[in-house]
Amino acid sequence: MSALRRPHAGVQIAVHAVVYAVALTMAVPFVWMVLTSLKTDLEAGSAPTWSTLLPEAAQWSNYVAAWGGGGRANLGRFYWNSTVVAVVTTLLAVAHNALAGFAFAKMRFAGKRVMFALTLATMMLPMQVFFIFAYVLCSWLGYVDNVQALVVPFLASGFGVFYMRQAIGAVPDDLLDAARIDGMTSFGMFWAIARPIAWPAITALAIFTFMNSWNSFFWPLIVVDSIDQKTLPLAVADLASNAYYSAWPVTMAAATILVVPLILLFFIAQRAFVRGVAMTGLKE
Amino acid sequence: MIARVCRWLLALVAAGVVVWSFARVGGRLLAELGADDRTEIVMLHWGDRDEDRVVANLVASFEAANPDIKIKRINSAANYWAKLQTMVASGDPPDVFFMNAYQLPKYAPKGIIKDVDPLLERDAASGTLTFDADDIIHEAFDGFRYDGEHLGQGPLYGLPMSFTPMGFYYNMKLFDEAGVAYPTSDWTWDDFDEAAEAITARTGKVGAAIDLRGSQLVRLMAWGEGTDLVSEDWRTVQDGAALRRVLDRVRGWRDRQGQDDTPRVYRLFGAAEQSLETSLSMFVSGDAAMQGVAGRWFVPTYRKIEDFEWGWAPMPRASRGANANNMLYIAAWCVSAKSEHPEEAWRIASYFASDEGQRINSELGLALPTLWSVARGPAFTNPDELPRDDAVFLDAVPGSRPMLWPDSRPMRAMHDAAFGMFSSDDKPADVALGELQDALDEANQSRLLLDYPPLRWGPIVAGIGAIVAIGIGVYAVVWWRKRPGSLRRGREMAGLLMASPFVLGLAAFVAGPMVMSLILSVAKWSGISTLGHAEFVGLENYREAFTNDMRFLKSLSVTALYAAMAVPLGQVASLGAALLMNTRVAGINFFRSAWYLPTVLAGVAMAVMWWWVFDTNNGLANMALSPVYALLGTDPLAWFGKDADPWGVVAFALASVWTFGGTMLIYLAGLAAIPAHLYEAARIDGAGPLRRFASVTIPMLSPVILFNVIIAIISSFQVFTPAFVMTRGGPENNTLFYVLLLYLEAFESHQMGYASALAWVLLVVVLTLTAVVLRLSKNRVETGG
Question: How far apart are CA B746 and CA B753, in angstroms?
Fold first, then answer.
């Protein structure tokens, strides 16, 4: 970042050391998951010791078994379902929430404060208490066992709007006033001024929305019935749901398959994110 | 120009979304016009992939024989009861569904399961019964009768499909090696202990890996002694010589789990923390000679293991010649009392219970069929496969019955008492049983057990309508008085237009359900009947929480402790990480991804890892802390065991720090929005890095910090998944997070009204905290440039 000049060598070494150490620590869960995915059921089920940390011989067949979905349907189908749901949800939800965030942050309209306060309040009730009613609603709308059930309820997000309002709130009012005097429309101001400046935050929101949608488990479990409509986490849960015997390695292999696209996606998205950061740097 | 094009595009997309959102409503009408003439029957069941295949076969052969019926099969293995409850509550229950004798008492009184006795009689009279009434195994069928108080009496609520008695698996090779005779159907607990001791002495292996299953094993052993843990009305602890004999035996096992150099004769599961090691993994690896208490469930799994010779014996008896008093686990197909196609649904259930259905279902060997002819026939009794003699399962049936369990509050108290007595840091039996009695008294005083007048929905709907109308009216008046000039009107409309898709979506999918939960917070509603059955209780739910539910305050304090640790830890970690990420380090893209990694990992996989990290003996956490333990001269912590108060919560808070990636990203985006010229100006003024951090970064970042802190408070008070997957609130409620309690009340105790009240208490708590934070930050947060 241009904000900081290159510091002393000693400081730099210290920074590097911390960065590497944290990265190692943060990698532990993932490494553990991959290691477990390569073990036999017996190895994974034995009491954990250092000597059994590594699999004796890598069991790649766990990945074959996981991909085959235990013979019901292969994971490719569920990949497609998850991708459709996550992409549509992300595009629509970010558009919804960024627009509303702009309105709450920079526009004046009657009832704004009350609406925003109510928005905040909706975040404070746990979903566990009202998903039954959300299900009833989805059932009326014919959403159950359809892709709409996984998308529409997630479009309006209290978190998303709150975040967008805070992020767009940082856009200087002078810029907007100047644009308005130049005759720019409200939507034009959102598009040409607020959007580029808040782009890192919008990207971050997109990342969160996508990840949440991709990993979402509790709600799909209730609203998805048929195998054809299942998303990836449900398929993974099916693998793990052998009530009598915990086949951790195959489950872990499936969990790895589930998460790898997210990691790749994050890697790509955060570069766009950084570009967005650089862009705002120019604007200032 | 671009803006105009975009605006049109956006309008188009918006219109598309609206059409798409309501497409199903129209689509349904069209579908009904062009539907095929088969009757669709919705069927809900559970089962892993082997069982799923069996049910699929059943459905296929039924459909082949009944071309007029089409079955829509839903396998909801991962969360069966929540799914069933949701379908029932929405007024659209499945026509045919799976049920076990354990859950039956909760559902039977709600009038949603058909009493099938009349249907059986009718079919028997007309000669169309699909099986021979003399052929049924009565223990299994009678176990599915319930009269409101006792299992085994009253109407029959389904056609039992499969069942199993309980007992122990044994490893034949280890028995041979030690020269111990295999268990027989009439063995006693003394035989059991003798065998375990002898095998450990002669082979060095663990004699028995024992699952306590909460308090189930204790109750089962007490049955053998002719008593129980708690009286039949769930009011009084059955403390007496017989129960004490049982408790002493189990405590004896606990003491022989091997410490220092003593041999490890037993390994108890369910009294200590969750671990990767299970009784099953010990048995399969040949480390334990006996495993139980378990039904026939493991047979398919054990059959797949090569070079593994094993057998099964029913529950040992209290003494030679005593009654077995074994327990049965029973699963049955039930027919919905609300089904629009009761005849078709009945045909399906009775096909599954028929000879042919039972034969197909016995393929797996997972449980016992409920017809004697099938149980004794080749479909079930397979001499080529282990166990050598399937008859031992059948021999254990006579005199056995299903176990009735109370509501979840007394049930949890019973499990807690067992944990208290048998964990490594034990409570004396007197204390544990005394606590159990207190908990039973509390549960029996519960206001939720009383009957109340019905909730009148008419006035409520009218009231809500009035409130909404008044709201709109007030809004119109306010708008009119402050109405903007024509110049500003456009802007006002634009603002409303931009916010409205969000506001409408939120109103439909969040605010609507919220209002419902507010109404229900003054109601008693089980969630396993339609809303019309709700009763009006006034403020009794709230009173119950504050005056008669020990778990309410416990869970509130557990959650507050968690929040007090997780919020600051998470903010410091993520802000620190964001600052580091903002520096120049080679390969920063890689690290940014690496640091975000744990945030994308979710669910069961992570829960299993944390079991390993916080394992008492071999976990990473205790490994890292061993110098500290050495310094203090203390034993390693049993995070989710005896030290769970408060270390279980600490463990969850530490684990939560790993997922700082999201917050880090928000900080990073916030840092990016700080204009560079501010730093330049500060530098020119001679400010060092710390000074720049304190007077540029922090003030400029303050809106983001405020946002993150509020979000962190909200989400830490709603933490649910880790505890739900890992500890289920145990041991002894020490990790009973607030939303977990709420979930248990809603979906295990079936007290949706009470759960709604709990939710609104949470809302008030979090709202208050948020208000305090906002207040404190009032003059410290920069707004609007």
Answer: 8
Q: How many CB atoms lie within 10 A of CB B515?
A: 17
How near does any CA of chain B get to the CA of A281, in Å?
7
What tokens does B87 get? Answer: 């379908």
Which amino acid, residue B451?
Answer: D
Token reading at B773: 């934070």
Cβ burial B125-152 (10 Å sphere, 16+ → b, else e): eeeebbbeeeebbebbbbbbbbeeeebb
Query: How far is residue B777's CA from residue B95's CA, in Å, rounded to a whole number?
Result: 56
Reduced to 3 states, what is the DSSP secondary structure of residue B205?
A: coil
CATH T-level assignment (fold) for domain A9-283: MetI-like fold (1.10.3720)
| Helix axes of B661-672 and B550-581: crossing angle, nearest 10 degrees | 50
Element (H, E) at B687: none
Q: Are B253 and B259 in contact (CB under 8 A)?
A: no
Dihedral Cα A168, A174, A178, A181, nearest 10 deg: 90
> Which residues of chain A are within 8 Å of residue B25 when distances are taken between CB atoms?
141-142
Q: Which residue of B has its CA nearest to A103?
A: B495
What percentage of chain A exceeds 70 in pLDDT?
Answer: 88
User: DSSP string covering B490-518, please?
Assistant: HHHHHHHHHHHHHHHHHIIIIIHHHHHHH
Averaged pLDDT of chain B: 88
Alpha carbon distance B170, B302 (integer Å): 11
Angle at which helix B342-352 crosses helix B355-362, to 10 degrees, equals: 60
Provide the residue type at B72 as one letter: K
Residues A144-180 pLDDT 10s: 888 888 998 888 888 999 999 988 887 888 888 898 8
Pick the closest to residue B380 from B388, B368, B394, B389 (CA basis): B368
The pLDDT score that the predictor gives to residue B700 is 86
**Predicted local confidence at residue A59, as pLDDT:** 85
Q: For residues B306 and B440, which has the higher predicted lDDT (pLDDT)?
A: B440
Fold for the domain defined by B556-601+646-777: MetI-like fold (1.10.3720)
User: Which residues partner with B371 through β-bridges?
Assistant: B136
List the single residue in B25, B79, B668 with the smallest CB-CB distance to A142: B25
Residue (of B253, B250, B223) closest to B238 by Cα position: B223
Range(s) of chain B covered by CATH 1.10.3720.10 = 556-601+646-777
Domain covering B34-164+331-401, topology: D-Maltodextrin-Binding Protein; domain 2 (3.40.190)
Residue contact B498–A102, C-beta within 8 A: yes
C-alpha R_g of chain B: 31
B506 near A122, Cβ under 8 Å?
yes
Would the CB atoms of B92 and A139 count as touching at under 8 Å? yes
Compare B558 and A237 and report the one with higher pLDDT.
B558
For domain B167-325+407-448, which architecture applies?
3-Layer(aba) Sandwich (3.40)
Comparing CB atoms, the residue among A107, A156, A233 nearest residue B510 is A156
CA–CA dist A27, A22 (Å, integer): 8
Handedness of CA A283, B1, B4, B9 (dihedral sign): negative
What pLDDT band is residue A1 in, cutting at 50, 70 and 90? very low
Percent of chain A residues past pLDDT 90, beyond the cut = 12
Residues of chain B with CATH 3.40.190.10: 34-164+331-401, 167-325+407-448
State the pLDDT confidence band at A284, using cuts at 50, 70 and 90: very low
Contacts B304 to A, Cβ<8 Å = none
Please name the residues in contact with B345: beta carbons below 8 A apart, sequence gap of 6 or more: B41, B95, B96, B335, B336, B339
Residues of A in contact with B312 (CB under 8 A): none
> 3-state DSSP call for residue A55?
coil
